[in-house]
Amino acid sequence: MLLNRRDFLKAAGGGVACVSLSRMGFDLGPVKAYAADLKMDGAKEVISVCPFCSVSCHIIAHVKDGKLVNTEGDPDYPINQGALCAKGAAMLSMTRNPHRAMKPMYRAPHSDKWEEKSWDWALNRIADLVKESRDKNFVEKNDKGQRVNRLEKVFALGTSHMSNEECSLTHQAMRALGVVHMDHQARI
Amino acid sequence: MPVLNGLGDCEQHINDAVESFAGKRPVLEPMLRAFGNILREKSRLAAQLAAGKPYDLAVDPSRLSRGVPLLAGVSLEPLQEQLNVSFNAMLNVLRKTFSDLDEELSRLEICYRERKLDFVNLSRAYLETDPRVLSETARSLMVSEGVLGMVVGVLLAPVLEVVALSYAEQVHQARWLKGFCPVCGSMPSISYLGESGEQASEFLTGGGGQKYLHCSMCGCEWRTKRNMCPACENEDKDRRVYFQTEDDPAERIDVCTECGAYLPCMDFRESVLRPPLEIAAVGMVHLDAWACEKGYHPLANTLWNQVR
Amino acid sequence: MTNHWIDIKNADAILIMGSNAAEHHPISFKWVLDAKSRGAVVMHVDPKFSRTSARADFHVPLRSGTDIAFLGGMINYIIEKDKYFKDYVLNYTNASFLVDKGFDFKDGLFSGYDPKTRKYDSTKWAYELDDNKVPKKDPTLKNPRCVFQLMKSHYSRYTLQKVSDITGVSEENLKKVYDNYAATGAADKAGTVLYALGWTQHTVGVQNIRTAAIIQLLLGNVGVAGGGINALRGEPNVQGSTDHALLYHLVPGYMSVPIADWQTLEDYHKANTPASNDSQSANWWQNKPKYFNSLLKAWYGDNATKENGFGYEMLPKIEKGQDYSYLFLFDRMYRGEIKGGFIFGLNPMNSVPNSNKLRKAMDNLDWLVSVDVHNSETSDNWHRPGVDPKKVKTEVFLLPSAHRLEKDGTVTNSGRWHLWHYEAVPPPGEARTFGYMVVELMNRIRQRYKDKPGAFPDPIVKLDWPAKFDAEEMAKKINGYFTQDKKIGDTEYKKGQLVPSFAALQDDGSTSSLNWLYTGSVSEKEGIKAKKRDATQTPMQAAIGLYPNWAWCWPVNRRILYNRASVDLQGKPYNPAKAVIEWDGSKWVGDVPDGGWPPLATGKGKSPFIMTVHGYGQVFGPGRMEGPFPEHYEPVETPVTGHPFSKQLHNPCFKSVTSDMDILAKPADPKYPIVLTTYSVTEHWCGGGETRNVPNLLEAEPQLYVEMSPQLAQEKGIKNGDGVIIESARGKVEAIAMVTVRMRPFKIQGKLVHEIGMPFCFGWTTPGCGDSTNRLTAFVCDPNTTIPEFKACLVNVRKADKLTEIS
Amino acid sequence: MPKSFFIDTSRCTACRGCQLACKEWNELPPNKTKQTGSHQNPPDLNPNNYKLVRFSEHLENDTVQWYFFPDQCRHCLEPPCKDTIEGYVPGAATQDPETGAVLYTEKTKEVPFEEVRSSCPYDIPRKAADGRLVKCTMCNERVSRGLLPACVKACPTGTMNFGDRDKMLELAKKRLAEVKKTHPKAMLADADSVNVIYLVLDDPKKYHKTVVAQRSDGLSRKQFLAQIFAPIRRPVEGIGQSKS
Predict the structure, then answer these.
(1) CA within 20 to 30 Å of D30's CA: B113, B258, C669, D102, which one?
(2) Alpha-carbon distance B22 to B33, whole Å?
(3) What is the pLDDT of residue D230?
(4) Total domains in the fold of chain B
(5) Alpha-carbon distance C189 to C174, whole Å?
(6) Element of type H or E holding C559
(7) Do D157 and B204 touch (CB under 8 A)?
(8) Nearest C-alpha neighbor of B39 from the set B19, B11, B59
(9) Residue C398: enclosing H or E segment and its boundaries?
């Protein structure tokens, strides 16, 4: 099976060379000067998936200097073939939305405001709360004396916004803690 | 299914595109006019050949599904007559257009009359990029390799355009996904992003953007993936970049940083104009100049992109 | 979905019911119209005329909550008019099975019902077995105790007149839908059923779908191209998140969570591994121990050994029959029994019924971690209108999460396609992926338990847990590895090698996999197959748009489930023009078949429905809570006091809780005479937290509205655009009246019944747009799934003197 | 050859992609809108919305008809608004001879708005906060660079089409012939006199009151234009003459 162009070529490259434009008699000076003045922006195209309904339309994200500059439906994905609905088409403004939560926020008991916190502080504080709640409320055995290992007083809800990999880890973590009140969008 | 560009390009269509690009980018006007002449003649000739005697080539379309181009290894012997016709017509227009090359072109004409030109063999060597055959022939005929290469390429193109046309349906059915041409095995000279989905349904025809490659030799057009370099098949998002200016979102140049190849691309979703693709490629030669300056090389050598 | 999105184009008839596909799965509708342009008839049965109706061949308005009556009438019609696909029904469904004498049905109740527990004893619904414990069959389908005859008699009660009387659909419209759809009973015709939350969100949700499944089996529409039972799943990765079981009652791969009565791994397997003595039954779930043990091995790594039951004893075990879903969680929270918890990417204060109760319940938490892309009604619950924050004790964290475009990983679409998305840009500011948060947090908790042991640390410290979140590594771990060198058949696998398919998973600890359904999704040769973008297909595959090389789908890249039912006993496709698989004499070609055994006629085949114990499609479904045949019951809040089929008004098993805030209107309650249904809006996403914050989308759909018919508006003195108040037994909501001919009153039992509809995407954190519609809905649930009845409750509506929520 | 739009409302699903794309390209701020009993929002064209999808619904013979109409400036071949404006301030309105786009300049600030508005048979012009008159520009700055108008580029359904006038007319007639088979009342609205050619499936009044040229007194376009042009009629140069 021939799978590569090299298999039927004697030499690689762009094919047989032609005479140059200058040899043909063109003055390339102005063209090169024109080209040198161009303000060319480089961007890459990244395949992603629309985060809304589960048709999972593919999206090509255009990224320039690490910033999202445009999104379009992926014409190669056989299901959406480049088409997007109004929400999918609004992906750019949705992702770049200034209203988004950008920093871990904390609201102390009885407080009337949010405060910014570091990730380190927030995760440590949550870890303390989880351990404290678990140590205090862990149900080792039920009324019948059966071993049940349940942490009934802590719950986990969500989310179908997670990737499969994130779902798998979340399930594993919650079962390890003994969480039984676990649910997400599939039930509502 | 894409429409084959070559044969549909009537004279008016080519003229309009030349005018429109020349108006937009006067710096390219001399090239647009020169290559416009050649492309017009090529188009006329292809139409003439298509209307003439049917080709008798040993082509096996079932090879497409195995990733083998139709003409790979196929003898071009039966095309002797068409190649002769093409040589005469194309040499004439080349001579008219490029007076700087006249000396070498007229020498080739003499060689032809003296039956020193074996077009079948040269065409085969051209398609297979066999530098030995071409350089030896050039030496023996006392012309430069560049001019010989140019002439062989130019005379072969209209002849093979007819092949591409007659197998367009098979190529479409085969869903050819390679970066090289399913008909003649050459690399593309330009690509474009299409307007709407292939399977236009009543509802949500799609934003378009499907990528088609246009063969630098036979003008065959085939669909490819957006996220693949046609030269090295690299799909890494971080090693493919496209460049464009803010003013011209319909024109871009796709670069693979893995293998260093570039390919111009027209985005027909942005553009009202539908120029013949080869005129569009000439109208974007400034991008070739830019890319070469940056150290990239074209996917296919064409008549108009040798900017060095 | 048994089939997939593109496959919709292969249908000859499309019944869209309980879904507004054009507005809520817009791109899916492309394939509906593709089918239409090839001559398919598209029917939309729904209370509201929507953009789906506008593009269908016809729209049939139906009163919310009467789908079983409508579909039961279709079953009756199909049997009476002899429209069913006889070969298929006989060979591939359990229609010929004889049912044991314990089974009975009287006045709306099946045998075995205990009114005290409100539960059935389903052992009463067993088959009559032969000496080998295989169900007895009557291939003539004449035996009065065979499933076919029992079904026939059950649905003979669903006459056109009675169905029309309760659904509000004219007899003429009933016949139009029945005729068009029943025509797909021909061998070479296919009909597909597209449904969504309009079927699931009822106290009879599961049975709505069961009724459709019976129709599909009768017409031979399961397993074929253009057929199937197709849930248009709503949420972005809800298929994947269900596969990976973010649900209390399952562990990944649709296996039951351990219950207290199964104290050991052996107990678990004994209770969960089905057996069949029928040599023609593949009984696929007999492999469950391999999948379950491999899961445990993946969770606990080297700490899972054969000796310790692979760590089974460390797992939490729920109480038998106890429900831990939203309904009960929030009820327990309301009662102060819950201390704290996590809400990831979800806004239940807006999108779960009886919001007033839920919002109060949340005040009882000591701590709450809300992880989202926006501050929402959930994270901000402590300063909702009318509440003094100083009185709310909850310690609240809002952790900013990444958008899909900002992370690597896979999702699974509704057609089970496993799809990779690449990180295009990093998350903005300090936003992070869920994966980062879960891994980091768990590592901190693990460290704390290592430093200072507290309650039972083993399940936490012994976890096989990554130091950092890496989507590719996780994708491989989900696929699974060999944990030691292993020879299977003639092939030798090395420790650390990826498991090639779930057929190679072992129950002896030599393999690990976080989800057996995804084993085969990554291979040594092809890497992560979700990244594959290869559109090539054979002409046979291209004829039905199968795309077998595009990405990968579970199980084992089978694109159409139960596809062995698309061929006759010799392996020849019933519809050669749209063949899914075909036996070429030595192997199957086309799709990946449901097992590679030769056709049934060879004597070496297996029955097509391999996930059922006996291998047959279940016309008779003894596994459901409220009976083996779907029966019409009214919504818990209903505008009628009786219906034509029995004296049993409601699903006898529906789930609910009792509290001072769980008040229900009585049947035909004069205070609440109007039916309310709820739905989404194209411009907003679910609870709206994300899209309300996109100014241009908010401009197009700015405020909460209620759609009502001109007749109702006139009756209530309401004009289009008026502010109105909608009231149920649980709450009051302000909205703007949208008076529209797209809503129609229904004639039910000779009386005019009005239905209104409202979206639920508006909430108080977006000023002036209105607040949760779910303050009206009742938290009463399907007994099988505990999915709430969002689609039908009772309300009243009046013109508002002034508005406070909408400005 | 002027450019034309062909707007095939038989394909429109009211996704409002065009409406949003128009706002984004023209950088028009969002309006603080209210629900007024319709999905049509904002309720009318306004200085921040040059393009608006209109919704209309009817119940006939027990069947619901729900029609969508993406409304915008028609870029008339002989634009009456231009004549009105120029009657006050020459040069305040222009028509691009290449594209046919009817354009308003800064100078429209000096023109009485209501008069211009009532001279438009489609009720399109609106007055911005700074006094300028505004409406759809045919994305002329895009079109003159060879790019498609933003709304056309955004349309996922094939409703919005744009190109040379003869090509658009050809497409419109082809589609009309097709949809006539199922919708005998289908028609092209004022195709001979405008560069934005709508295909509607039914009586245009069922879509919106000014789908075809209209004034409150119910004059046809021909009568209406005759009246408008009577006192100030002068030759229109540069573009094709109306055939009506």
Answers:
(1) D102
(2) 8
(3) 43
(4) 2
(5) 21
(6) none
(7) yes
(8) B11
(9) strand C395-400
In this predicted model, what pLDDT tens digit does every residue of B186-238 receive, in sequence order?
999 999 998 764 445 556 566 788 999 999 999 999 999 999 999 999 999 99
Q: How far is CA C454 from CA A139, B98, C219, C445, in A?
A: 13, 89, 59, 11
From first CA to last CA, the distance across chain A in angstroms is 52
DSSP, collapsed to helix, strand or coil, labels residue B279 as helix
Work out the number of other CB atoms within 10 angstroms of the CB of residue A4. 13
- CATH number, domain of B210, equals 3.90.1670.10
Residue B288 counted as domain residue: yes
Residues C147 and C629: their CA atoms lie apart, in Å, by 10
Number of neighbours of residue B258 by Cβ within 10 angstroms: 16
3-state SS assignment for residue B118? coil
Q: For residues C519 and C501, what is the distance between their CA atoms, to the nearest angstrom?
A: 5
Does A66 lie at the interface with C, CB-CB under 8 angstroms? yes
- B156 and B32 co-located in one domain: yes
Mutation for testing the D interface, residue in A85, A87, A92 having most D CBs under 10 Å = A85
Min CA distance, C28 vs chain B (Å)? Answer: 10
Looking at the fold, whether B73 and B158 belong to one and the same domain comes out as yes
Contacts of A149 in chain C (CB under 8 A): 314-317, 456, 459
Among residues D195, D205, D218, the alpha carbon closest in space to that of D2 is found at D195
Q: Is C123 helix (H, G, I), strand (E, B) or coil?
A: helix
Q: Chain C residues with CB inside 8 Å of B237's CB?
A: 422
Q: Output the average pLDDT for chain B.
A: 91
pLDDT digits (tens, 9 = 90+) for B127-166: 998 888 999 999 999 999 999 999 999 999 999 999 999 9
Examine the domain organization and report whether B133 and B249 are in the same domain: no
| Single-letter residue type at D222 | K
Does any domain span residue B82? yes
Q: Which pLDDT value is given to residue D13?
A: 84
DSSP-assigned letters across all residues of C404-434: GGG--EEEE-TT-EEEEE---SPPSTT-B-H
Give the pair of three-digit tokens for residue B97: 């257009």
What would the DSSP string read from start to end of C125-141? GPBPB-TTSPBPB-TTS
Reading the block at residue D178, the tokens are: 């097709």
Residue B247: inside a domain: yes
Between B and C, how many residue pairs show a Cβ–Cβ distance under 8 A? 31
Q: Do B204 and C26 touch (CB under 8 A)?
A: yes
Pair B155, B263 in one domain: no
Q: Which of B131, B166, B201 is the last residue of a domain?
A: B166
Average pLDDT in the C484-510 region? 97
Q: Which of B138, B166, B194 is the last residue of a domain?
A: B166
Q: Are residues B161 and B272 in the same domain?
A: no
Q: Are residues B89 and B178 in the same domain?
A: no
Q: What is the pLDDT of residues C365-385, one digit of tens each?
A: 999 999 999 999 999 999 999
pLDDT tens digits for A18-29? 899 999 999 999
Contacts of C758 (CB under 8 A, 6+ apart): C676, C677, C678, C679, C704, C705, C706, C707, C726, C733, C735, C773, C776
pLDDT above 70: percentage of residues in chain B: 94
Its domain, for residue B261, covers 170-298
Q: Tell me, yes or no, whether B224 and B159 share the same domain.
A: no
Q: Do D24 and C696 touch (CB under 8 A)?
A: yes
Do B160 and B215 share a structural domain? no
Q: DSSP strand E in C686-731: where?
A: 705-708, 723-727
Mean pLDDT, to the nearest integer, of A123-136? 98
Q: Tell me if B282 is assigned to some domain.
A: yes
For B21, residues 6+ apart whose C-beta sits below 8 A from its C-beta are: B28, B32, B275, B279, B280, B282, B283
Closest CA to C184 of C144, C239, C151, C221: C221
Measured between beta carbons, the chain C residues lying within 8 angstroms of A157 are: 326, 329, 341-344, 346, 348
